[in-house]
Specification:
- With 365 residues, the chain is of the alpha+beta class.
- It has two domains: 209 residues, outer membrane lipoprotein receptor (LolB), chain A (Clam); 107 residues, Protein Transport Mog1p, Chain A (3-Layer(aba) Sandwich).
- Helix content is 22%, strand content 36%.
- The protein contains eight helices and 20 strands.
- It has a twelve-stranded mixed β-sheet. It has a six-stranded antiparallel β-sheet with strand order 15-16-20-19-18-17.
Length: 365
């Protein structure tokens, strides 16, 4: 075979590989007869569906946060690539890559492993110390995990069907859920899922008046075969620094060791029943309000950050800031200069009303 023909074969093969994803997208989309209520129920019950895939999330929220909360900005203000292997709710692995670097998470029956590639550091949190309240992590952006959390208490009456779509090579059924809560800054959530199993593969969240999603995450590649146990297994790399105990999460630490006592309700939103520490989480679905009592030093740092943010305003001795559908409010000084930081997908007026109903913030016990 001549050199010319060899290169023609290589070129033809390369063109076929490039065209394959386009060809998959152009395949006719099947039509599912499943109802909105039926699809919602399957999504809510899909935690046991096994799969693996590659996903990508993107957000446009540039949050005015301090270095202690930079991980939130990395997740919700940029693009994150996710590789996920899901065998069960207590047996999964998610590898995430964004501007901050690579972080891998591995959940098993006895706890969670977290591994940071850049620092070659592995952290192990045992099941009995896994925090109920914590900062967001990369696994929260996996489409299936996010969809189940947002739709866990959804009212089927507010759900409608969207056109079917072909996503990651699979026919999917679309679902839209409108919040219907005047306190919420979120207008609706769009979810596409496999109609047979309810596995969500794409999620888009829209703020009120927005034409583009404030957060979107979608699977680009999907296998519905069960991952092998070896694919979710994790062993710290040779030479890795290994740390055992509670992960370095300031919100989890405040929740566990703080002296503050949030009330059962704030601004008409009920506190979640399992969350009984010093951090209060209120509401459900995408209508959420979180009240975090900040110790004095961190409170002063956050106050300086929020006060210097363009568009911030002084309200009732505190500071109010809005970033897209997310609003933040830092209360006035409490006991020994501690303060409440309130954040959520609720209106600024709702946060102000909630702050007035909180007891004075306290520090650590």
């Amino acid at each position: 075979m001549t050199r010319r023909w060899r290169w023609l074969i290589v070129a033809a093969g390369s063109a076929a590989l490039v065209a394959l994803p386009l060809a998959v997208r152009l395949l006719p989309v099947g039509h599912s007869a499943i109802t909105a209520a039926g699809l919602l129920a399957r999504v809510q019950a899909s935690a046991g569906v096994q799969y693996s895939g590659y996903a990508e999330s993107s957000g446009g929220l540039a949050l005015p946060v301090t270095n202690r909360f930079n991980s939130i900005n990395d997740l919700f203000g940029d693009r994150t690539q996710l590789r996920v292997w899901w065998r069960a709710a207590d047996d999964w692995r998610v590898d995430a890559v964004n501007l901050a670097g690579e972080t891998d998470l591995r959940r098993d029956l006895s706890g969670v492993w977290s591994w940071n590639y850049e620092s070659n550091t592995a952290a192990r949190t045992q099941q009995d110390t896994v925090p109920i309240v914590r900062l967001p992590r990369a696994d929260d952006l996996v489409p299936a995990t996010l969809a189940r959390r947002l739709l866990s208490h959804a009212d089927p009456v507010r759900a409608t069907r969207l056109p079917d779509a072909r996503i990651a090579g699979h026919d999917t059924a679309g679902l839209r859920l409108r919040t219907g809560d005047a306190r919420s800054t979120i207008d609706h959530i769009d979810v596409w899922a496999l109609p047979s199993s309810g596995l969500p593969v794409r999620v888009k969240i829209y703020g009120r008046g927005d034409t583009k999603p404030v957060l979107a995450t979608t699977l680009l590649d999907l296998s519905t075969s069960a991952p092998k146990a070896s694919e979710t297994a994790f062993t710290p790399a040779a030479g890795a620094k290994v740390r055992y105990g509670q992960d370095e999460d300031i919100v989890a630490a405040v929740d566990q060791f703080g002296r503050s006592h949030p009330p059962a309700q704030l601004a008409g939103l009920s506190r979640r029943p399992l969350e009984v520490g010093s951090v209060g989480v209120y509401g459900q679905g995408v209508t959420l309000l979180v009240a975090v009592p900040l110790p004095p030093r961190l409170a002063r740092t956050v106050a300086g950050q929020l006060s210097g943010t363009p568009g911030s305003s002084a309200v009732g001795g505190g500071v109010s800031v809005g970033v897209g559908p997310l609003n933040l409010f830092l209360s006035g000084e409490g006991i020994d200069d501690a303060r409440w930081l309130l954040a959520g997908t609720v209106t600024a007026a709702t946060l102000t009303a909630a702050a007035a109903q909180l007891p004075p913030a306290d520090g650590f016990r």
